[in-house]
């Protein structure tokens, strides 16, 4: 998981709640320290640094997930993973439909749209509550 902030942190907690093993990466050393104190295997690193990605145990990962929004970061990570011959799936994050299409066309298996996804989940909860 690249990005251990609010969105990434929420996603990590949900994945760990499903008994999935997660490794985290962030450029903020304070976030890395906080997550390590919570028991997460976390590393300080930059998603846009191809040399850093080479140090990660990618051959053991089923998914590489980036919660860092933006076309540039997503495309850089995709190219790095392709160069590293990563065989698993890739989920990237976007805040716009246009970026989502670019990232999908570039090879991302899944593009997360946090605001849209949160709205859909909120609507699902509200509809369920209304129907009870």
Automatic annotation (TrEMBL):
<dbReference type="InterPro" id="IPR036291">
    <property type="entry name" value="NAD(P)-bd_dom_sf"/>
</dbReference>
<dbReference type="InterPro" id="IPR003148">
    <property type="entry name" value="RCK_N"/>
</dbReference>
<feature type="domain" description="RCK N-terminal">
    <location>
        <begin position="2"/>
        <end position="114"/>
    </location>
</feature>
<dbReference type="Pfam" id="PF02254">
    <property type="entry name" value="TrkA_N"/>
</dbReference>
<protein>
    <submittedName>
        <fullName>Putative Glutathione-regulated potassium-efflux system protein KefB</fullName>
    </submittedName>
</protein>
<dbReference type="GO" id="GO:0006813">
    <property type="term" value="P:potassium ion transport"/>
</dbReference>
């Amino acid at each position: 998981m690249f990005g251990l902030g609010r969105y990434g942190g929420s996603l990590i907690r949900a994945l760990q709640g499903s008994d999935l093993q997660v490794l985290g990466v962030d450029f903020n050393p304070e976030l890395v320290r906080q997550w390590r104190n919570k028991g997460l295997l976390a590393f300080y690193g930059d998603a846009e640094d191809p040399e850093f990605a080479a140090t990660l145990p990618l051959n053991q990962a089923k998914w590489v997930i980036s919660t860092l929004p933006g076309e540039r970061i997503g495309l850089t990570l995709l190219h790095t993973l392709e160069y590293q011959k990563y065989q698993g799936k890739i989920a990237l994050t976007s805040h716009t439909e246009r970026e989502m299409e670019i990232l999908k066309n570039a090879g991302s298996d899944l593009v997360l749209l946090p605001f849209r996804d949160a709205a859909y989940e909120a609507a699902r909860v509200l509809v369920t509550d209304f129907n009870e």
